[in-house]
Fold:
Amino acid sequence: MSTNVTGQFCGRDARLASRRDFLARAGLGFGMLAAADLLGREARAAERPAGKAKSVIFLFMHGGPSHIDSFDPKPLLNQLDGKPAPASFGKADFQFTKMDEVPLLGSPRTFRRRGQSGLEISDLFENVAAHADDLAVIRSLHHDGFTHVTGQNWMNTGWARVGRPSVGSWVTYGLGTENDNLPAFMVMLDGPIKAGSPAYGAGFLPAKFQGTVLRGEGPPILNVERTPMLDEGEQRRLLDSLGELNRRHFAARTDDSELAARIASYELAFRMQTSVPELAALDGESEATKKLYGLEEPATHDFGVQCLRARRMVERGVRFVQIYSGGRKGGAGTGWDGHNQINENHEVMARSVDKPIAGLLADLKSRGLLDSTLVVWGGDFGRTPFTDGAESGSGNRNGRDHNPYGFSVWLAGGGVRGGQAIGATDEIGLRAVEDKVHVHDLHATMLGLLGIDHSQLTYFFQGRDFRLTDVGGQNNLVERLT
Amino acid sequence: MTSGLKSGKTIEAVGKRLLPLVLAIAAGAPIAWSAPPDASAARAILERRCQACHGPQGMSGLDVTSREALLAGGKRGPSLVAGDPDASLLIQVISGRHELRMPMGREALPPDEVRTLTDWVRQGAPWGGGAAESEALWWSFRPPVKAEPPDASKNPVDAFIDATLESKGLTPLPRADKRTLVRRAYFDLHGLPPTPEQVDAFVQDDSPDAWPRLIDELLASPRYGERWGRHWLDVVRYADTGGFETDIYFPNAWRYRDYVIESFNDDKPYDRFVREQIAGDELWPDDLEARGSYDIPAEKKEHLEARIGTGMYTIGPIYHEAALDGRQLRYEWLTDVVDTTGLAFLGLTVGCSRCHDHKFDPITQRDYHRMMALFAGSEPHEEPVSHPMSQLGFYSGYPKILQVEELKAAVRRIDAGARQRLVRTIEARFPEEVVAAHRKPVHERSEAEIALAARLETALTEAGLKENAAGKEVDLSYTPDERRERESLLRRLGDAALGARFEPDTATVLGRAPVDYAVEMTSRGDFHGTGETVVAGFPKALTGGEERPATPPGAGERFILGRRTALADWLTSPEHPLTARVLANRLWQGHFGRGLAATANDFGKQGDPPTHPELLDWLAVDLREHGWRVKRMHRLIMTSRAYQRQSGPHEGNAAIDADNRFLWRMNRQRLEAEALRDSVLAVSGSLNLKMGGRPVIPPLTADEMQGMWSPDQWPVALDPREHDRRSVYLYVKRSFPLPMLTTFDAPDSSQSCSRRDVTTVAPQALAMLNSELMTEQARRLGERLREDAAGGPDAWIRRAWRLTLGRAPSEDETAVAMRLFAGSSDPGEALPQLALLVLNLNEFLYVD
Structure:
């Protein structure tokens, strides 16, 4: 079919009847950028928005890290340890726990003022804390998804149900790629995640904007390893013959850009066979760098490798990188999901990411990349200030349930002014109460730091224009953060 | 509106069953004309340009959907000063005479639209009647009318299309050659390439009816139902599991899939197909009473099949954790049911109205909830599909299941013993007070005991005896006796399992819910109702602007069985404006790659209006008039000259209609994911044409398996011949779609897919070059070439071309392909390379 350039998309089909039409629909100005990816690279260069950040690294703590044990100190909670939550804090629904049946649980962690700013961070993240003056902690994030899948969907796609495009897809849809030999949106997992591939999927955006998983084991991208049937020379010869035959076929059908695109895609595929393994390989990195990321220690090796690869990606112009910590590895891995013995769980999990994240921040900074790279840390949600009611109905005195009503994320780099905390939860960390920041606001802010007006980044689907931020995003923090 | 109401009442007084809709239109037309023409033009602009943001409860409080609301304005004060464009904020913001520019962030309105609105305000901003008549005039809400084709001597399809071509100054391309046509027909109707012999047979057949005979042959083959059934499975978001984290398995989804395939193969009238899927249980109830034999009489089988049709409503995505609250689970189910019904049968995006009135189409939130109520008295049931004799027979074999359970319990006892020993061994490493603290119930432990118990807890976790973050599994050791006993039990368990039958034959269908849940209005998609109960019904705008309760004649409003019947009756009534149109358009899309209306699931105001409205109407009415027969429609379309045209370029035409909206040529189409995989298997000689049954779970490579949340949910079919079945029979796991199929744009089955994406990305090339599937198929095709064609590279190349492209290679092409054999002492070794080459040709994937 020669009806349009990238093709027809399920449900919204053929509304993009032509490229010009696409421009008109994608919205003035910003649409030019969104379309740049379709039109070629020129438009992008001409219209790059003014945001300082060019790329994003989204560190996702799968399972839901506890804000009250890490970035949101709650002295009153420790005083009330073991007591029921005072009625003044109100009621809320949780996955397992009925909050009037369980006692509050103080934090065993020690919070200290860090850096020149004095930002308070707990001893779970001693290494990250050394970068306190680069971190802007949002302590009043909230959504309403109290199960993992809904929480992960909210944080990644701005919607509880499955099917919306992920934030990485929106960003690459908006800004395109800067490296034609690599996918613009790449994801690294340490095991499957509960929300599955929709968490980094393109939803109703064209499939080319979905996250490509860079695998930890085996070939880094599915099928990127040459078939065992051919050696390199044979494959090149086959591709040459194929190209020639396909060009002959095209000669009688020159008005069909899809045929031309498919011919070109084989050359990109061929280059990816080299560029992707090169990206994944760390041989060229110095010992000092590897040490910085904790590669020599078993506890930090895996996440360190991913962080180092993330830096290599942004160096090479990959637009959006997402790294997960705490996916399922084989057995009954629980990630950051500290229903039982949260302190032990978080010690193990934090130890595995703390040094690599600090290393990433330091490395980006020393290479002058931190200014153009927005680093975001967060998870499905935070955790409850009271104990978990999951086990035997009587509650597990050492764990915390999911809490989407108020929790913390932090941002660094990409022009963000560090050393500040935005918003606050109530005195026990149950709910965001001051300067509340909804997930839509977080997304609006992330887009804003990239120079994108979230209200203008739209896609027409099933009868209307959709945005990442739906009808929200009013509390855009860009001005306060930069 | 007022006058529409009056007319509606008159008609009901007459007592005809005729839908008020028809009357509303008859009554609506004069009203529309009574408004000054400028009013409708102005309103159309407001609707198109402004309403998305400024509908009811619009941004900044501004609502452009009525004159009163415009006069009242929003946060910035009145938008309209009737008669004074300069003083009207509306005109200021669209003409650049105000700091605020509208539409916000969009292209400015073209000058002629600004002029129309300005003139309209100057004339006092007349509005005309209410909203109803403009809805009634919307093309897809009018019943289709069968116009006389412009040229009686032609196939009616050509008569309409040629007339448009002529009026646009477009030159239709000539008929494609016979080789192109035979490939087009096979891929279109079967999703498979013709064999070289099938190509020859058609090319050499000079009889005048060779083409229609070919079409009839293809329609008679069961391959047709597999191909076109798959199109329908897209529309009903078919899958074998519920998706999300737990991704529950639907044991009987395949029965619905087979039902769809059989329905297409049987040329089941579409109205019957719709009625079965919506209300098969209500319309054809049957008790399957025994008649002295295990056989089910034919008529009853037919009723059973009708019930399986309702399986459509039992295979949607199920967010398992929503079951934490039964109300939410039901609300999510009803949402999927109403959304899918709207998209599949009505071609309307009713889903927008779950949380608020539709911003563009006349579907209200209340309509949406009334549609929910159509299904609120129903729920999925598992029903036996065998004769009562067989059902009872199942229970005579039940003790064998008990035997299996006994053996499992015996094995578990041994494991528990070994586990207990391991716990004791670990406990022995700790002081007594630690063990004592750990043995206390969790909530009885003191602070000190908690700390003590934690030490042991950690050790147990590390041994894999507790759920742990590292995913470590426990490693049990058995005594020699235990080991012997365990192995013996496992053998007996295997034998017992072989002899037992674990599940009776059932189908999952819709049935009557034990409680007729009242459907309440909700607020912004929150499933907690507002307390206002609604009565089941259809969208008001489609029933003449009046709320008509969906109850069968003579039944009270609370009648449960019968609401879906009422829905089925309404959808398949001759007056219904959408059902036949939506189907005719889907059929057209299947053949041409794009419907006459390009948005097959959106016949509303945001959808694309049809390029050939008279033709679409003609097809819709003709379909209905001829018993809703789908195969007849295929014949009619495929025997048109429009279908048989070349797909090549034409400069003159491209200058006028580059997108071929008016069909001066055939659209070139890429094979869909399933057709591509099936064609590769067919060409390599591997395709297994076995039909029906449980979904086939194909093997995946370890690389492909990465990312699957529960690998234990992927029990691979152990018979390798099963792996070569047609793609429509492969397992559709919502949380893990098959990589090869997703890469080529298979839908994600989270919601109805009206039309596949066609993307062209590098991972497709990687899959086609490097995947294990392609490597294996290239090897098999290489073998086949060696067997089929003696005589070395020349003959192999010829055969390869004939198998994949249905034609002989040119000399040049042969020379290019010959390069693969250069410098090789054993040319046979390069056969898989030749195979991989031809399977990657654009000409193989793109059908002219």
In short: The first strand of chain B starts at residue 378 and ends at 384.
